[in-house]
Amino acid sequence: MKIAAPSFAHLNVSRYAGDGILTIYNVHTHEFASIKYKDNAGNYLNSGIDEINNILRCRLTGIEKEMSLKLIELVDDIEDHFGKGYIEVISGYRSPVLNSGLRRAGHKVALKSLHMEGLAMDIKIPGVSFSAIRNYAKSLKAGGVGYYPNQFVHVDTGRVRYW
To answer: CATH for 21-162?
Structure first.
């Protein structure tokens, strides 16, 4: 099921150093894609944004959510900064059903998680330490950064905070 998304082609909210191509691997669906989401003039490409929304869909329900453009730009910046080729996504969009299920199973997920708003991703980069990802993400001061050693780094576009 897909939640309708508006056209993004007229927007340009970039403040990060990403190249407009996000290469991601979804560890739950085993999907891998290199997605061009901005043209050479810096305009967003609806087809690329749609593809990102699809690969980051809820792994339980299959529902797609419009992911934050700022978040996409942030993760692209992190990917390009380390130059390792791709980002592994542990969690992108989480439906309320998945989020509450994870809470019931004892996972430490927020009741009002920003994942449910399309504003957060849990990521890792093969060959890059979790602490290096955390430190770089913190230096950007773009939102929240959660550090889960040997698991992932949480990045979001909410208020700046660290845990």
So the answer is: 3.30.1380.10
